[in-house]
């Protein structure tokens, strides 16, 4: 049973004429007749009664006609629904991000909502291990993290932007620091650091590995936004990706001079999964904001 067969049958039943249905559908009479005959053969009943002058619905046709109309209406509604999805007028998008990455999302989310207000956006902020599992469980459409040694052949990763681990403080706090700060000079500053397990902290641990440096750690926080609020209101300084203060006023960032201080932003998909148009557009918003 094909939709075109139902369409031809409904039009003939509505108009009571093969010739009029032919003109309405811009299809030859023979094509309409052949397809309706195939439909009748498949159903095992005669849907139309025919004579030399008239065509009308049989008893079977009268029962089948409203069902055929409903199927065609549902098919049309489904096609419109698909168009809405394509045009991002309807749908859902689940985005995950690590705690260290989360401050970068605010403007992208606001811009995305203004552009596509009918897309339901689900945000999940958690550890990279949890994000990986949620991707594998198909609970997320895309995950956003800083690049790390954690890899999984089932997950495809793409570079979003390049960044570096930086010493960050409010304007005027990073006195005596040049264009870069050495690992040894980090000990000069009272530090408020991201908690262990956050990506910025893990990168810092890589930088400090085998270095004889004792940091003056005054505070540890597992929320980057809270950390920045505290640093912005005190003499404390922190160590985060320079992207953490992108488009944020009142801070300065100085890169840490160490080859392990790279903090490149990445987005990740489950390999072989369907990539939603909504997810592609969200990534475009993030790329535009970083430009």
CATH topological fold name of the largest domain? D-Maltodextrin-Binding Protein, domain 2
CATH-defined superfamily of the largest domain: Periplasmic binding protein-like II
- Percent of residues in beta strands? 15-25%
Cα radius of gyration in angstroms: 31 Å
Number of helices: 9
Order of helices and strands: HHHEEHEHEHEEEEHEHEEEH
Number of domains: 3
N-end to C-end Cα span: 52 Å
Strand order of the largest sheet: 4-3-5-12-6
Q: Characterize the largest beta sheet: strand count, sense, and whether it forms a barrel.
A: 5 strands, mixed
Structural class, judged by helices and strands?
alpha/beta
> What coarse outline follows from CA principal-axis ratios?
rod-shaped
CATH class of the largest domain: Alpha Beta
Mean pLDDT, nearest integer?
A: 91
CATH architecture of the largest domain, by name, is 3-Layer(aba) Sandwich
Low-confidence stretches: none
Measured as a percent range, the helix fraction is 25-40%
Core attributes:
D-Maltodextrin-Binding Protein, domain 2; 40% helix; 9 helices; 3 domains; 291 residues; five-stranded mixed sheet; alpha/beta; Arc Repressor Mutant, subunit A; 22% strand
């Amino acid at each position: 049973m094909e939709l075109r067969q139902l369409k031809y049958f409904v039009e003939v039943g509505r108009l009571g004429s093969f010739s009029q249905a032919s003109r309405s559908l811009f299809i030859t009479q023979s094509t309409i007749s052949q397809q309706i005959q195939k439909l009748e053969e498949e159903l095992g009943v005669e849907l139309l009664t025919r004579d030399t002058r008239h065509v009308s619905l049989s008893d079977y046709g009268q029962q089948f006609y409203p069902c055929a109309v409903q199927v065609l209406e549902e098919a049309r509604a489904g096609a419109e629904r698909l168009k809405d999805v394509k045009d991002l007028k309807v749908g859902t998008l689940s985005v995950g991000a690590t705690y260290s990455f989360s401050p970068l999302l605010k403007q992208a989310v606001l811009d995305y909502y203004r552009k596509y207000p009918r897309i339901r956006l689900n945000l999940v902020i958690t550890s990279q291990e949890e994000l990986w599992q949620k991707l594998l469980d198909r609970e997320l459409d895309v995950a956003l993290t800083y690049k790390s040694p954690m890899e999984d052949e089932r997950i495809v990763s793409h570079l979003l932007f390049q960044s570096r681990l930086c010493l960050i403080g409010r304007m005027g706090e990073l006195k005596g620091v040049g264009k870069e700060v050495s690992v040894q000079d980090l000990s000069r500053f009272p530090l408020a650091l991201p908690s262990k397990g956050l990506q910025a902290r893990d990168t810092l641990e890589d930088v400090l590995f085998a270095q004889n440096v004792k940091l003056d750690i005054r505070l540890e926080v597992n929320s980057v936004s809270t950390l920045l609020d505290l640093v912005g209101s005190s003499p404390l300084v922190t160590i985060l990706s320079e992207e953490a203060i992108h488009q944020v006023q009142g801070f300065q960032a100085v890169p840490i001079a160490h080859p392990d201080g790279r903090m490149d932003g990445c987005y990740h998909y489950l390999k072989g999964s369907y990539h939603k148009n909504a997810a592609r557009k969200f990534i475009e918003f993030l790329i535009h904001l970083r430009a």
